[in-house]
Design a protein that fits this description.
Blueprint (H helix, E strand, L loop, with lengths): L2 E5 L3 H10 L4 E6 L2 H10 L3 E4 L5 H8 L4 E4 L3 H13 L3 E4 L11 H7 L2 E3 L8 H10 L3 E13 L14 H9 L2 E5 L2 E5 L6 E5 L3 E7 L6 H4 L4 E8 L3 H11 L7 E3 L2 E3 L1 H13 L7 E13 L2 E12 L8 H18 L7 E3 L1 H5 L2 H13 L4 E10 L4
Parallel strand pairs: 1-2, 1-4, 2-3, 4-5, 5-6, 6-17, 7-12
Antiparallel strand pairs: 7-15, 8-9, 10-11, 11-12, 13-14, 15-16, 16-18
């Protein structure tokens, strides 16, 4: 039986470990013994209490494994990815790190490693969908709208974090890169707000975030953007915090002590943003892909509305992120996908067999994408 180490046993790491344990020999590692104890109570999974910020610890954990899963907060993601590659181990990573993963492409290729990055729901599944269609048509416009939200809207933020809260704050501060008329431009995070209507949910607010990531290098598409979804009103509270300096990363002096405003804000916000046990939440995503296919202008729209699983006590964000990761992990473990180097999900989506396998894997776990397609207009060739 092949061996898998899951680095990080948070909400998403737990879902990944439980899913893979149905087929593989899984070990989960985390610094939080309480999270590991909860995981052991759910399944016969080996656990290791470890400080995963240390490269030597990562090296010792992965040396006997066939595959590593990176499910750590973004600030630990890049160094963990680099360490695993240096150990010549394949890795599937979901962390939202700021660094460019392609900086490690030469290293991964040299080591003969398959390193799949950004392998969650968004980035992740949205990339995979675009990769599939980009290989079969001339895509001219791509848009991804995505968010994870609690069912209950509570003042003031009307929000709970279904994944690492520190990575949520990163979405609110990291400049958003988008493509307009073939040129990459930067906009402030939280910019260009608009209201968007969704069946069953109603009106949500969308704003620019830096979610295109690898697509900026791998795709030559004239118009691309990614926006995050929240309940209307949330963005204004975050803007006030940001503009006042509460999300600042540069230390300021208070009574002779150097303190980062972000650390204080995070300490105050995280208890308010923590999902209660078994609290209902949902993930919503709309991916629109438009371009020329077989001489016609076509538009494909994929919609996802996934909810908390009350039977397994698994959050929707953990399911939609985690099962994308485990689907791709299975492709690598079974030797179906073998390309070496840094692999963004769009590379996997371009392969028909891999694309269909990931979609079927998700359906088997009750994660369903509704697909609508229409002919926008017929293209006349001169």
């Amino acid at each position: 039986m092949k061996k898998v180490i899951v680095l990080g046993a948070g909400m998403v790491g737990r879902a990944i470990a439980l899913d893979l344990a149905q087929r593989y020999d899984v070990t989960a590692a985390d610094i939080d013994e309480q999270k590991l104890a909860q995981l052991r109570a759910d399944a016969p999974i080996r656990t290791v209490t470890a400080d995963l910020s240390r490269a030597e610890t990562i090296k010792n954990l992965v040396k006997e494994q066939d595959l590593a899963i990176g499910a750590l907060p973004g600030f630990l993601g890049f160094q963990t990815l680099k360490t695993v590659i240096e150990c010549e181990k394949n890795i599937i990573d979901i962390s939202f790190f700021a660094e460019d993963p392609f900086e490690l492409d030469a290293l991964a290729t040299q080591k003969g490693v398959t390193a799949v990055v950004d392998c969650g729901v968004a980035p992740g599944m949205c990339n995979l969908l675009l990769g599939y269609h980009n290989a079969r048509m001339t895509v001219e416009r791509y848009e991804c709208l995505v968010g994870g939200l609690p069912v209950k809207r509570s003042w003031p933020y009307q929000y709970k974090a279904p994944f690492s809260p520190i990575d949520v704050i990163e979405e609110y501060t990291r400049p958003a890169r988008l493509v307009i008329d073939g040129k990459m431009i930067e906009r402030e995070a939280l910019s260009d707000p608009e209201y968007v209507e969704f069946d069953e949910i109603g009106t949500l607010e969308a704003f620019n975030t830096d979610g295109l990531r690898t697509l900026l290098k791998t795709m030559r598409i004239p118009h691309m953007r990614e926006k995050t979804l929240r309940y209307p009103g949330h963005i204004e509270y975050i803007r006030v915090l940001r503009e006042t300096g509460f999300l600042g990363k540069e230390p300021i002096e208070i009574n002779g002590t150097q303190i980062r405003p972000l650390d204080v804000t995070a300490k105050l916000l995280f208890p308010q943003w923590r999902l209660d046990p078994d609290e209902p939440e949902f993930t919503i995503m709309r991916v629109t892909i438009e371009g020329i296919e077989n001489g016609r202008r076509k538009e494909y729209v994929y919609e996802l509305l996934d909810r908390f699983d009350s039977k397994t006590k698994t959050s929707s964000m953990a399911r939609t992120t985690g099962y994308t990761c485990t689907a791709v992990a299975t492709l690598v473990l079974e030797g179906i996908f073998t390309q070496k180097g840094i692999i963004p999900p769009e590379y996997i989506g371009a392969d028909e067999r891999c694309f269909q396998a990931v979609m079927e894997y998700q359906r088997a776990r009750n994660v369903h994408y509704k697909i609508a397609e229409r002919v926008v207009e017929r293209v006349v060739k001169e």
